[in-house]
Amino acid sequence: MKVSDDILKSFSADQVLKSIPTGTIIINERGQMLSFNQAAEQLFQYTADEAVGQPVTILMPKPYQDEHDHYISDYIHTGQKRVIGIGREVTAQKKDGTVFPIKLNVNEVKADGERLFVGTIVALQEASFQFEEDTKAEDVLNRFHGLVLSNKYSSEQKIIKVLELGIEYLGLEQAKITQVEGDECEVLYVLPSSAFKVGDRQHYTEAYCSYLIGSASVRAWQDVSRSQLKNDQCYIKNPFNAYIGTSLFVNNEAYGTLAYFKKEKRATAFSKSEKSFVRLVAQWVSSEISNQLSLKKIEQSHDYLELVKESIPDLLFVKDKRSRLIDANQAFLAMYAEQSRDKVMGTKATKPFSDETTKHFLEQDRLAFEQGRSETEEEVIFPDGNKHLLETKKIRFTDPNGDPLILGISRDITKRKEIEQALRNSEERYEIAVSGSSVGLWDWDIKSDNLYWSPRFYEILGYADKSFSPSITSFLTMVHIDNRDQVERALNRHLEEKTPYDIEYQIVCSDGHYIWVHARGQALWDELDNPLRMAGSIDDITQKKNAQQEIMQSYMELERFAYVASHDLQEPLRMITNFTELLAKRYGDQLGDQGLEYIRYANDGAIRMRELVKGLLEYARIGKGSQVKKRYDLNKLKKVVTENLYDSIERSDAQINWPQQGLPTVHVDPVRMVSIFQNLLGNALKYRKKKQNPIVDVGFEERMFDYLFSVTDNGIGMKSEYIEKIFEPFQRLHAKDEYSGTGMGLSICRKSVEAMGGQLWAESALGKGSTFYFTLPK
């Protein structure tokens, strides 16, 4: 919706009078003040509210008050002027009784058939509008005031007519209003549109406005060709000889310029009256432009509000006291069968609803009109038959004519209520779950530092339910001294870095003994990542820990047995190998081919057995403290592994691709790392396709908490059901005459990786190669 011309006209006239920097007062034929602008307030120390409606004589010393009424009466009946006219110096009186000299200009205007008198006042010592007493100046001032106070024209029409008036009065040919932005000048108004057109832009240095902008004084040249400007770019580009102009100020900032000009020189210099006229016009134009900018903001604001009104899902409507719709948004209109505003506006808002609903609507309307507002939650069956729960607020207001209306805002809260009900149901289920859960639940309000423990939490620690109020501080004191720092670090890392809070620790019970618990938790953060709340659970894992300890003890004993057994088996196997070789050497001629073959079988079996025992021995050594962990640059192992696998690489014509970015430096056992990479790469070369050269890609990725490594080949692959089987000791998927090996390599790799705090797994498909992944902690 655009602001109407009527609004624009009334807005402009009022704002002009307020913003003109010269004291301006309008009186009627009875001498009663109708308007009193801000400059007049400053001169006379009366506020507009105090002055309007009072006789103008309150602004005069006592001796002049009686005479004033005679002046107006004589002028009305005889046409003879005393004060009516231009440039009279008279004495005025302020509110506090102080008298002071002023220069007074009074002009008659007619507005809506009524005779009004416009007085402009300047304190004599501040007088800047200096009009000589001549009929021409008096006439142009009368015409100027008549134009600016007229309701016949729009703001832009007034500006054009004032420019025309100035051209006529000054005897020039053209007039122009320019806006200056940065180093450019843009034409806003021009008469006539010949050398310049609205929208034309010039560089600042090529325009006369460079000599006007920023100065409150009027600049005038009778003949520019005889001045210093004749060599300036502005004159060379636009050779106007007679030129007069000044700055425009909007909101106390230089905005642009007003100028009148013609190509021929002027026969006479510009008079004081002419300069004062240009200054007066500039001040009025400044106020008009300010008003236009304000109206534009109002229009933009209205358009924005209209956009918001039509965009929001809430139902907005305006009703009068007879429940007729005055205005509504599309969300509201969508309830009706008629989708056109023209059909719905002016009709009863209760038209499509049931009698019961209508009665409720009217009661809420009555409350809003009587009390100023009403609020309710109401279940409404829409015209389409669907039932909705609405939260409706109605507020009373008055229109410009003073008629009471109500603004209604209805929000569909059906979904919200359903969610609230679902939440209540969820909370009930949660309470039941908490009561029956084997784990203890906790909830920490971080801002208030309030800590909630469920009944089961108290029970795990041997306390009666709510026997004391826990806090995060008291909780930490209950954690075993050996685990306390670890728990605090885990909490802080979760709150600050959002790392998972998943930890095992010991905590003291009511009788003083410690139990092991497994704790998990999750925090909530606000939009600035400030932690608000954290909740989680604890589970008593003491029995599990004890069982793990027993298993670990048995495992260690088994490892010791395997180590001793494998170590002791090496010597007999070595003897078998040595003696079968010696037997073949000394008695080979006597044994014959079959005897030698038997000896070879025995020797090969002993060698394989020794390799198995060596693998078993190495497997048993892992985790027995045999690791020597240190910071190790994994790039160093590339050369070692490649040299160790040189023969296999050459025979298979393999291509091994290492990461372009290199490998990281990690805290590991270097010997184990060489063994892991050598084993994985060796397998990739061993289990290759017969008619395809092997390609092996070594990958590396740095993650938040660890490093992920991968070894990918284009070999024979395997079925997914066999993937875990290959990590078991002595397990083979192929016959020993197909592929050599003991079946211990991948078992040793996995155990070595786990001993260094990582994990190892594989992905594969038959005929499509395999990828082995393993992680190492940072």
Task: Describe this protein's structure.
- The structure is a single chain.
- The protein has 778 residues and is an alpha+beta fold.
- The chain has five domains: 23-128, PAS domain (Beta-Lactamase), CATH 3.30.450; 312-417, PAS domain (Beta-Lactamase); 437-540, PAS domain (Beta-Lactamase, 2-Layer Sandwich), CATH 3.30.450; 541-621, Helix Hairpins, CATH 1.10.287; 630-777, 2-Layer Sandwich (Heat Shock Protein 90).
- It has 20 helices and 28 strands.
- The strands form six sheets. A six-stranded antiparallel β-sheet has the order 8-7-6-11-10-9, covered by helices on one side. A five-stranded antiparallel β-sheet has the order 2-1-5-4-3.
- Strand 4 and strand 5 (114-123) form a beta hairpin.
- The longest helix is centred in the last third of the chain and has 80 residues, at 542-621.
- It is elongated, with a radius of gyration of 50 Å.
Q: Can you summarize the main beta sheet?
A: 6 strands, antiparallel
Q: Structural class, please? A: alpha+beta
Major sheet: arrangement of strands: 8-7-6-11-10-9
Name the beta content range: 25-35%
Multimeric organization = single chain
Residue-averaged pLDDT, rounded?
82
Q: Which stretches are low in confidence, meaning pLDDT under 50 for 5 or more residues running?
A: 1-12, 82-87
Q: N-to-C terminal Cα separation, in Å?
A: 65 Å
- Report the CATH superfamily of the largest domain: Histidine kinase-like ATPase, C-terminal domain
Radius of gyration: 50 Å
Count of DSSP H/I helices? 20
Q: Can you name the CATH architecture of the largest domain?
A: 2-Layer Sandwich
Task: Please give the number of β-strands.
Answer: 28
Q: Compute the number of structural domains.
A: 5
